[in-house]
């Protein structure tokens, strides 16, 4: 059921984003990922690392929104402002986690989406909860903010001596990662996860998000998995997630799904695979579901 209209401020929107980070971290069991009961395929972080990381990012989340609400210029100019603040947030995160990268991808996406949300709220005088059309307007604005991002960030890679794993994947396989998702206006959120949440908003929240995670793992171009295991490992993970979705639905026993997810987790741990890209999109899905008052 939609919640009543409430005052829309950067602080309120930032709190939704913080909730999204914390809810994603708390969801369990998540195959290959950190949750309260498992470190997944990670030896350098645990559930408490994610709590610390989320706390470090917290003040920046509302500041991203504030940048949008006060911006008077082009979408590309807002992107430059946000990227600068996002780099500061990343440093704060790494300082809090002793250099462990917990939320780099999530921070990138939340910086874009929160600033765009702030801009649209200001320009159109929107209130919470958002409509589906309001959310689409945010995605379209991000598309304008990131126009040409891939060609700009990945130009001259062949001449670089040291490449990030994202740059290597782009050169070797054409994998565009989260930059590509952003430049297209987050089609995974717009066309897949949010329609799923809108359709099933009355369902058990934990069951809903465990199934949504499997949906993401079965379809997402997850550069984290590809970097750790290669294209073949990524295709195997997608196939197994798809098979689990064929076995389980929103009418299934949570206990049965939990047991299957724990086995999947153990397998991905043994293969050192972590679908971090899917986890980031899961958090973003929760944020927009909260913004639309779906739960």
TrEMBL record:
Keyword hit for Transferase: yes
Reaction(s) catalysed by this chain's protein: 3'-dephospho-CoA + ATP = 2'-(5''-triphospho-alpha-D-ribosyl)-3'-dephospho-CoA + adenine
Entry EC number(s): 2.4.2.52
One matching Pfam family: CitG
BP GO terms, sorted: prosthetic group biosynthetic process
Highest rank taxon of the organism: Bacteria
UniProt cross-references to Gene3D superfamilies, sorted A to Z: Triphosphoribosyl-dephospho-CoA protein (1.10.4200.10)
Transferase listed as a keyword: yes
Keywords per UniProt: ATP-binding, Nucleotide-binding, Transferase
One GO MF term attached to the UniProt entry: ATP binding
UniProt xrefs under InterPro entries: CitG, TriPribosyl-deP-CoA_syn_CitG
Family as reported in the entry's similarity comment: Belongs to the CitG/MdcB family.
Protein name per the record: Probable 2-(5''-triphosphoribosyl)-3'-dephosphocoenzyme-A synthase
Naturally occurring in which organism (per UniProt): Enterococcus plantarum
């Amino acid at each position: 059921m939609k919640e009543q209209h409430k005052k829309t401020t950067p602080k309120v929107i930032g709190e939704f984003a913080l909730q999204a980070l914390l809810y994603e971290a708390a969801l369990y069991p998540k195959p290959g990922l950190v949750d309260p009961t498992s470190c997944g395929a990670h030896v350098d972080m645990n559930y408490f690392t994610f709590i610390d990381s989320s706390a470090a990012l917290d003040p920046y989340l509302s500041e991203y929104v504030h940048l949008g609400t006060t911006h008077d210029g082009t979408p590309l100019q807002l992107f430059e402002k946000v990227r600068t603040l996002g780099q500061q947030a990343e440093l704060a995160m790494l300082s809090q986690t002793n250099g462990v990268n917990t939320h780099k991808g999530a921070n990138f996406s939340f910086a874009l989406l929160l600033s765009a949300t702030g801009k649209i709220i200001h320009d159109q005088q929107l209130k919470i909860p958002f409509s589906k059309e309001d959310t689409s307007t945010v995605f379209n604005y991000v598309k304008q903010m990131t126009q040409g991002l891939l060609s700009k960030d990945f130009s001259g890679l062949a001449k670089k001596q040291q490449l990030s794993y994202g740059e290597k994947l782009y050169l070797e396989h054409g994998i565009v990662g989260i930059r590509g998702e952003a430049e297209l206006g987050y089609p995974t959120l717009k066309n897949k996860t949010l329609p799923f949440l809108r359709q099933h908003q009355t369902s058990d929240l934990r069951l809903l998000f465990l199934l949504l995670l499997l949906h993401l793992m079965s379809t997402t171009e997850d550069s984290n998995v590809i970097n750790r295991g290669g294209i073949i490992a990524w295709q195997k993970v997608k196939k197994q997630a798809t098979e689990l979705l064929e076995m389980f639905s929103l009418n299934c026993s949570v206990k049965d799904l939990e047991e299957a997810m724990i086995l999947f987790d153990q397998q991905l741990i043994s293969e050192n695979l972590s679908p971090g890209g899917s986890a980031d999109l899961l958090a973003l899905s929760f944020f927009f579901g909260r913004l639309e008052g779906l739960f």
